Amino acid sequence: MKAKAWIAPSLLAAAILGLSGCGENAAAVLGEQATGGDAQLGRKLTFRHDCGSCHIIPGVAAANGTVGPTLERFGRRGYIAGALPNTPENLVEWIVEPHRIRPNSGMPDLGVSPDQARHMAAYLYSLQ
Amino acid sequence: MRALFRTLIGLAIAALGLAGAAAQTLRRERSGPDIQPNQGSRMKLILKTVIATVAAGLILLGVGGFAFMYSGVYDIAANEPHNPIVQWALETASDRSVIFHARRIQAPDIQDPALVRQGLIRYREHCLPCHGAPGVAREALGRGILPDPPPLMTVAGRWTDPQLYWILTNGLKMSGMPALGMQLNEADRWSVVAFVRRMEWLSPAEYREFVAALEAEPTAAPVQWVLEDDQGLTKLEAEGNPERGRQLMRTLGCVACHAIPGRAEATVGPPLTRFVERQFIAGSSANTPKNLQAWILDPERLEPGTAMPNVGATPEQALHLAAYLYTLGDPQRVQRLRRKPARNGGEPVGRSLP
């Protein structure tokens, strides 16, 4: 192979890999404005509370559960659990105490604090 | 952090590429462009270079790996996810090992109400704290473990009865899954398998009834310890027409509220893409053909106060709609409703395979 032939592809690879992280942020801002939470922290908390054992959640490691509905594009969902209009307050309420809203629901109360729920809500609303 | 990681990988690739280019140039200059080396010595040179490179690489890898391990930089914290490659390697090794080691176990018949009931007792003592149950969260002990203990109602389908038995008897290394062979006798261990199988089709409300039945007198309202018929699967497969169902999704207005493959716009209700893999209908009923048709015919009856309207479908239309919805995703899940006799053979799936 010619020496020059190595240079272009490797620089291209570097550029693509380096830049592909940008652009994830616009949607996060949307979620944060709606809830006053921190979307990045929310993503971490979503992982740490094992929400992914029951839900598919884009951007959260090993989140491929099938017990609850997929949370892909959750920012656009009309209802929460078919029971509440999808507003930030309702979402926080749902994450904190689903069984108060739906006693027969397969989503149990998970011991999440309202503050943690707000950050997670910010992340979920960033999923457009 | 991730952007940084990606940039570093990019730079490494670029550095390798530039090094390759430099080496090529250097060699060309040294040997001169016009000299044709003789064929034999050239092959030898290439062979030597390859062997030397591989050897040097291995040594570097060994030394580097040890240095990395010993430095303590690797993050062992359970509250940060595994690197995806590490996770894939661990899961695959674990799954293959279970499949291999459970190959000679023979399962007894576990379709026995007394066995399922006994299994519920043992499950609540030994598994519930980590794995939870329908509508019941895992306890504090089971939280924050990595890999996390999955809800068994959804993952049980990946394993045959003997494999489930092997896992709970022997546990899984390098995960929080304990070996329970010392604490439960053989009959109890099979009873847990029997209950876990039943749990695949148990709703949160039914689970509560099961627990109540444990505590009440034998005369209390009977519960269905063993799931009876095939829950409408045979009729669905014989008479349901998925193509008709797909058309009805449009004509009855379902796609105004639900995303389905090929029509992803609607976001009022949850997406129905891969619906067959879902554990519950509307978060509260077992996802069986019978329940699905009942849901389409009258959502309010299954889930009072739900935002899904009664669209006025006929029973025949509901059958076709159900037939269509059960083509979305991996049909294995619903086919497990037909699982007599004991699932000894069959294709072991394991969790890494989709």
Describe the structure.
- The complex is a heterodimer of chains A (128) and B (354).
- Chain A is mainly alpha-helical and 128 residues long.
- Chain A is built from six helices and two strands.
- In chain A, a hairpin with a 3-residue loop joins strand 1 (79-80) and strand 2 (84-85).
- In chain A, helix 2 packs across helix 6 (114-125), helix 3 packs across helix 6 (114-125) and helix 4 (88-96) packs across helix 6 (114-125).
- Chain A starts with a helix and ends with a helix.
- With 354 residues, chain B is mainly α.
- Chain B has 15 helices and two strands.
- A two-stranded antiparallel sheet of chain B has the order 1-2.
- In chain B, helix 11 packs across helix 14 and helix 12 (289-297) packs across helix 14 (315-325).
- The interface between A and B is large, with 52 and 61 residues.
Give the topology, please.
The complex is a heterodimer of chains A (about 130) and B (about 350).
Chain A: H1 3-19, H2 25-35, H3 39-48, E1 79-80, E2 84-85, H4 88-96, H5 98-101, H6 114-125
Antiparallel strand pairs in A: 1-2
Helix pairs in contact in A: 2-6, 3-6, 4-6
Chain B: H1 2-31, H2 39-71, H3 84-101, H4 113-126, H5 128-131, H6 152-155, H7 161-170, H8 186-199, H9 204-215, H10 233-239, H11 242-251, E1 280-281, E2 285-286, H12 289-297, H13 299-302, H14 315-325, H15 332-335
Antiparallel strand pairs in B: 1-2
Helix pairs in contact in B: 4-8, 7-8, 11-14, 12-14
